[in-house]
Amino acid sequence: MRINLADFPARPPTWQDIFGNPNPVEVEIGFGKGSFLLALAKNHPERNFFGVEYAKRWSLRLASLIERDGPANAIAIHADFTCLVRTMIWPGSVSVYHLYFPDPWWKRRHHERRLFHQDFAAALARTLCPDGKILLASDVESYFAEIVQKFSCVPELKPFSWERDHTNKRGKLIVTDFERKYRQEGRPLFYAGFRKTEKPSVRLAPQPPEAMPSNV
User: Fold this and answer.
1) Is the pLDDT of residue 193 over 70?
2) Mean residue pLDDT across the chain
3) Residue numbers annotated as active site
4) How many angstroms separate the CA atoms of 36 and 135, rounded?
5) What is the pTM of this model?
6) One CATH from 3.20.20.140, 3.40.50.150, 3.40.1280.10, 3.40.50.720 for 25-196
7) Is 176 helix (H, G, I), strand (E, B) or coil?
8) Cα(45)–Cα(72) distance, rounded to whole angstroms?
9) Domain locations in the chain?
């Protein structure tokens, strides 16, 4: 499925606007070739899956595959997610964030390109629904520890024990392309889960994201 922001009102579209149904939405940040996102969507038609990838060739490839073959509950776009989470995603609207093997950008002069900067962890928490989850995997222990520390500083996020538990209808484990490769190589892999525990005592209408810049 392809989306055109010009088709929506001036306010950021809701997930209902985008998918045409009220089903829970899971977001994968940096889906790469997209095999994990596709497998989840095909095995869980009762949920919607939204993938965001910064690498244009991979995002266009997956978007074309979805447009040609489905499934209808999956969308892939090319975007900078650090901008998207502030301007397009409504607070309290995401049930699960999938964050697997983020690029560590090893060289110090490239650290500014890392995904986790400033208030990114708080922005993810803001857009999670109550009891929503963030699932994290990495093969780089130092970067993994840095990300976990940033999540741990967000009061409404509580850690829970998690390892890969996604399976298809035949019970086979669903993993990313990197994960499959690393498992075959015998690399140590690190997993963590965080759950949003804050439950407002008064149910308020959600406030929209920040105004969307004209160049998004």
Assistant:
1) yes
2) 84
3) 103
4) 13
5) 0.84
6) 3.40.50.150
7) coil
8) 8
9) 25-196
